[in-house]
Sequence to fold (282 residues):
Amino acid sequence: MTEATSIPVGKYLVLSSGHKLHYHEVGTPSAGRPSILCLHGSGPGASGYSNFKGNMSAFAEAGYHVLAPDYLGFGLSDKPEDVEYSTDLHVPSMRELVAAAGATQVVPIGNSLGGAIALQFTLDYPDLVPKLILMAPGGLQEPQEYAFTMAGVLRMLQFVSNRPFAIEDFRDLLGHLVFDPKHITDEAVAERWPVALEQPIPVYASMRVGVYTDRLSEIKCPVLGFWGTHDKFLPVAHAQILLEGIPTAKVILSNQCGHWVMIEDRDYFNAECLAFLERSGV
Fold:
């Protein structure tokens, strides 16, 4: 970790837009197995590293090439104020990254906003995606139909609308993402807080996520889903939408997790993902 950044510096890709995309990479692409694309959520201060640092090494040790990007507006990537932070911005950026990394097949692993990006990526580039892993993904229902009943969403809206930010409020917001507050360590706060302070208002004010319910049946690859039953951001009832929309989908529910299954039940999550990746067919 450098003195200048709260998370380790990985690599940078200059996108066709001219903006710089920061990402971490472990391993190299292999013709024999797909690359893993770790797609983080939209919480203030989020980054690929902070969300997936406990998972990347497990996938890499199993022989997978892993990419963990920071979307524009997040982590150490550029944070322009003159763009709309929609899935239509993020998905092409992820396609550019995959191409630049030399990956020809990729399994997106997406949480929350990352889940919506993973869904759109799979729909836009089906030939690139042999399997898909989702954790409480966005994009399954219009936000106005559920968001204002979710304590975590309400807390995040309250947080991002009150500047200057207070670190005590930030820690409280992070606490809404988990079931057990032990996961909100001083280290976790220290990693995310400086990033949150740098994020411009448009990152949240212009955030737009597609709704893919009517297109889920187009996804033919095997899909593995995870949901914490204590999720305060995306209703666990959305798991049924996923199951009804994608015949190949299987969903694991955990009563020990909130919104961050990959962090809260890391070892189980890693093992289930690797078993899914190694399994032939559905």
Q: What stands out?
A: The mean pLDDT is 96. The chain has one domain: 11-278. The chain has ten helices and eight strands.
